[in-house]
Structure of RNase H type-1 domain-containing protein:
Amino acid sequence: HHHHPPSWKQFTPITLRKPGKPSYLVPKAYRPIALEDTSSKVLESVVARRLAGLAEQHVNHARLLHNLRKRHVPEDLVLWIRDFLSDRCTQVKFDDFTSEPLHASSGLPQGSPLSPILYLFYSADLLEVVDCKDPSQASGGFIDDTMLIVTSPSFEQNIARLTALVPQLLGWSNSHACRFDVAKFQMLHCTRNEKRYSPLPLVIGDHRILPCESARYLGIIVDRRLRWHEQADSAVDRGTSAVLAITRLSKPTYGLPHKHIRQLIRSVAFPKMEYGLPVWYNPVRLPPGSARRKGSVGLCNRLGKVQRLAARVISGAFKTTASIVLDFHAGLPPIDLRLNQAVFNATARLASLPPSHPLHKMVRRCSRSYPRLHRSPLHELFNAFPELQGVEVIDPSLVDPTWQSPIRTLIEPTKDAAAALADRLVSTSEFCVFTDGSGFAGDIGAAAFAKGRAQEHVRRVNLGSEDEHIVFEGELAGMILALDVIESEPRVTRANILLDNKAAIRAVSKRRPRPGQQLVELFHKRLRHLKAKRRSLAITVVWVPGHKGVAGNERADMEAKDASMGDETDLPPALQCLRHLPKSQSALKAAYKKKLARVWSDRWKASKQGQRIARNIDSSPPGKQALKLFKDLPRRQASIITQLRSGHVGLHAFLHRIKAVSSPMCPTCQCPETVQHYLLTCRCFLAERGARRRAVGRDFSLRSLLGTAKHRGALLAYIEATRRFEAYLDTPS
């Protein structure tokens, strides 16, 4: 089992350009990506996962194996990695050139799932050149990007401390056959006191490293004053460039449909703009009793211009359309709400870090105080989101990759088959416990129900508010209660736990780090306790479809609803913790999302544009409802519908407002050519309107034509027949 097949050691790297390089005449401007055998990648992923549970460039294989043993990696893994790295052969491809087979005696194949983790082991000693017990020194790194931080009362002392670390850096370089490119080194002297600033250089051998105004590390631009202005400028530029690139794929009259452009904007342009957002963006909020917003208000307005451009690209609207209308029809929350949601989700992840994580102490300290001076981004995040106190801990290190589930699970492919299985188990098996979780009356309840040999068993517990907990937790809690029911029947040796939630069943059988992890671990702790007392006990967890007439499931559902309304049963001391669970990360995210949706809806209702559209066209709240209008429509049709709804459309009444025509009047009727006039009363299109009116019926109004998708076909047929908007027609003349 220490063997890696020789045929899997043959790989072909292809060379890709690194983006943004000034010249592509030098080899370092290219990145080789290894095309490996897919079967090999599967095995490498398995080994990588095992290594991740324990824990590319010029990598010395002998040193790597030494480091793995030094970090107490099991010997069988070390021997497999030795075989994986030995006798590798590569052929380099560049355009139409393919090299002769070359022996790869060092390095790691980029593109392998195993390479990043192996390089972390390889470079781990580099991060230990600083004294971890000295609070004035710190180090950090990701793959081959490393940073060293020293602090002191003066820059002279900082330079002296860095100079003292240089021999250790060079020693690591020599022992690991990894030569530093000193020309790439960047140094920052960070202070906001300009009087104390001194541009002292650091000397390494023949190189003088001068301090710079800003440096890029892991994609984030850090400036020496730690104001993040350069990073903000870069974010705006990247977002604008990405949106402008996407505009080439879609114009108001042609290109990709509304749905796909929106997906591209949200999955490509916005992530490029908002990379590392919690570091450099202070959430915008309105403090209680204040009329002035707090946070990165100016930056939010700049990013809002990028979102306005993106919303116009998605919707196909005119440039003059109000931003709030563009956001409504593009399905994008206002920029401050959307950014706050992204930052909230990131902060929730920080609040869930386990004590073993390097950031845990800093997060805990910053979440408990808000100093008057020298606030860090973490201080601002937890001040903006005070509800993120007492969040559940999600610990990846709890999960052993080699762990095997001690329970059997059954999930039938169809509801009918699952219902039949449940009925069969109830009638033939030794003992069945039905469980359920319920969100009812604003709370989350969990219950377990079973018919014992002498009596019925019922367990009920209320987990708390649905703003802090989710039904998924109720399902897991119900399974824990089921174990207590099984424990109360000492003669049972085979038991089935039946519930209607597949996610909960998979959670207890996989044990992956995710929300609800504490309950999964409690389930397995109680299971181990139960099996220690009853070694012959076998438990099967079975999925049963909800509301399909399975009597036990219906009873468990009723008991769970009672629990959510506060009707609980007594629990043993070991399960009292179910009444005092930490807040669910998922529940907090969902509650915050609902809160932002209400704020967006209130803003829309309070705006002049929102009131006009709600009064005449569409009273639905902002969100995904408006997107249904454009489903499956070609680009030009979605654009003209948006323009008609907004009122910013190529009719004389609007064109006169922007001084594009001399008169707002309809040439035929001699009255303002508005959207209402064009669709409902213009005498020039009586015949075309009459045919569509017969199809629609008496409900021929702006609301029926523009407000819903029901009569969308009649509207588009009318636009086609009138030929009023030549550029947006299916059959241009």
